[in-house]
Design goal:
274 residues; alpha+beta; Jelly Rolls; five-stranded antiparallel β-sheet; 12 helices; 10 strands
């Protein structure tokens, strides 16, 4: 299965589709956050080497740079609402919406029971009723969905406020990594920057993000490498631009993550360097 990079020009991009099923042509990823609501459908959510099946309404959230695809059985109408929003939009959301909590995992799925449907479905009905150009209302409705999802996830995580406050600095760490991934970053250098021990940083990062710092950095670099290769950038230039120590190291990590070395990947997908 090929991997494609999807990008969106608008700070918020949303749509409502009803189809008779869907067969994914490829895994895809994007730098935007994604929250979607499935009102009906039998789904197979494909994510990075594994898959999950759901046959009831649910809320699905994909973190930026996560590889995913969805297959929907044609026996049941696939009725779904999708919202993509950028990091800049996330920064402007009300303080009551904690994006770091919501997207702490690459994939989160919340099944919609009767009590949750009474809160979620009126928002979807309002979305269908608003005009195509009413961006402000759509943004408000998306914020309401995020708030509902956060209420559900917060109760599931059930962490004490003291623990959450202790880990708040990890959000600054991830923001720094997101904008400096091309540099020579390491857990040691980041620990020194935040005046803490390497052991504490590793432990706190895993506690909040549900992934190791090293894996987060590798995933971010590989995702950006896929984006650059899909735009026709040369393998050698991509390796350097994404912070890999050398091209051979890039080839090794890329094949381990994607299944092909970069040059083979570009040929399979039909990408050509400029």
């Amino acid at each position: 299965m090929n991997i494609l990079f999807h990008d969106f020009d608008a700070p918020i991009y949303s749509f409502h589709h009803i189809t008779d099923g869907m067969t994914p042509a490829s895994l895809h990823f994007h730098r935007h956050y994604e929250i979607s609501v499935v009102r009906s459908g039998k789904l197979n959510i494909i994510r990075e080497g594994s898959s999950l099946r759901f046959d009831q309404p649910c809320i699905i959230m994909h973190a930026p740079y996560s590889f995913h695809a969805i297959a929907a059985d044609s026996s049941v109408p696939y009725d779904h609402y999708v919202f993509h929003f950028s990091k800049e939009t996330a920064d402007e959301l009300p303080h009551c919406v904690d994006v770091c909590l919501l997207f702490r995992q690459k994939l989160s799925v919340i099944q919609i029971d009767d009590s949750l449907s009474s809160r979620v479905y009126p928002i979807l009905d309002a979305y269908d009723a608003c005009s195509e150009s009413d961006a402000a209302l759509k943004s408000l409705l998306m914020t309401c969905l995020l708030s509902i999802a956060q209420d559900n996830l917060a109760s599931a995580i059930a962490k004490s406020p003291a623990v959450e406050n202790r880990l708040l600095y990890i959000r600054d760490v991830t923001e720094y990594i997101d904008t400096h991934f091309y540099e020579k970053l390491s857990a040691d250098s980041l620990a020194k920057k935040w005046f803490i021990s390497r052991q504490k940083l590793d432990s706190d990062f895993k506690s909040l993000m549900s992934i190791t710092l090293r894996q987060y950095l590798i995933d971010l670099r590989v995702a950006n490498a896929l984006r650059m290769l899909s735009m026709g950038q040369k393998v050698s230039e991509t390796a350097k631009s994404c912070g890999f120590s050398c091209e051979s190291h890039f080839n090794h990590i890329f094949k381990e993550r994607v299944g092909y070395v970069p040059s083979r990947f570009t040929k399979i997908c039909g990408f050509t360097s400029s």
